[in-house]
Automatic annotation (TrEMBL):
Segments traversing the membrane: 6-24, 29-45, 51-72, 84-103, 123-144, 165-187
Signal sequence range: none
Name of the protein: Probable queuosine precursor transporter
Family: Belongs to the vitamin uptake transporter (VUT/ECF) (TC 2.A.88) family. Q precursor transporter subfamily.
Pfam families in the record: Vut_1
Length: 227
């Protein structure tokens, strides 16, 4: 059941990115990055069983932001991709501050949401701190690496190489930093190790699967479908 849902979520994420791009162009890609950052950092709290292993949810949504920066790098250049990274960072920082403040309010007698919000957002500062560190390191590396590989292999037919070469290394960096900072001491070492490898392998699978969508986005742009 979880595996089927994982595939559905994969298609929904890529489909939404292309829809945002088709409807709003470059601005749509900028809009998706904050959505991915916020949703992923809520979903990551949930631990699920996938393909026989324990993994945190949110891997697909978060990994989809790498597709966005690769589209931006390919079509609009390194500078525009960097702007999207900064937008995602500020959106996650803003959510963390706002929800931390929200939890400080004393709830009314008839309130029913405080405990549920606390369950999700009380640990958010640690999760968000880990995510912010991992996000900045991995995403700026991805933007740099894509530009580097594009200069080495500028041919159109080599876009799959620069896409995967940049993303897969960046996601390894992301998984390492995030898992250690967010979950060290929270889960037993065996579970922590399992979370790290499953997180990375799932992100690796997302990176491999997003390549056709990158080609489609570039095709739309060159055909003048996207302004």
């Amino acid at each position: 059941m979880n595996e089927a849902l994982w595939l559905v979520m994969l298609l929904v994420n890529f489909g939404m990115i292309l829809l945002f791009f088709r409807l709003f162009g470059k601005i749509g890609l900028f809009l998706w990055v904050p959505i991915a950052c916020i949703v992923a950092n809520i979903q990551v709290i949930k631990l699920v069983d996938l393909f026989g292993f324990s993994a945190t949810l949110g891997n697909i949504v978060y990994a989809s932001s790498f597709l966005v920066t690769d589209i931006l790098s390919e079509i609009y250049g390194k500078k525009e991709a960097g702007k999207a990274v900064k937008a995602g960072f500020l959106s996650l920082l803003s959510m963390t501050l706002l929800m931390t403040l929200a939890l400080k309010f004393v709830p009314a007698t008839d309130d029913f949401a405080q405990s549920s919000l606390a369950t999700i957002f009380a640990i958010m500062p640690r999760i968000a701190g880990a995510s912010l560190m991992a996000y900045l390191i991995s995403m700026f590396h991805d933007v740099w690496a894509y530009d580097f590989w594009r200069k080495q292999f500028p041919q159109d037919r080599m876009m799959w190489l620069r896409n995967n070469a940049s993303t897969m290394v960046s996601q390894l960096m992301d998984s390492t930093v995030f898992t250690l900072v967010a979950f060290a001491g929270v889960y037993p070492s065996g579970v922590l190790w399992q979370i790290f490898w499953t997180t990375y392998l799932l992100k690796w699978a997302v990176a491999a699967a997003d390549t056709p969508f990158l080609y489609l986005a570039r095709h739309w742009y060159r055909k003048g479908i996207i302004e």
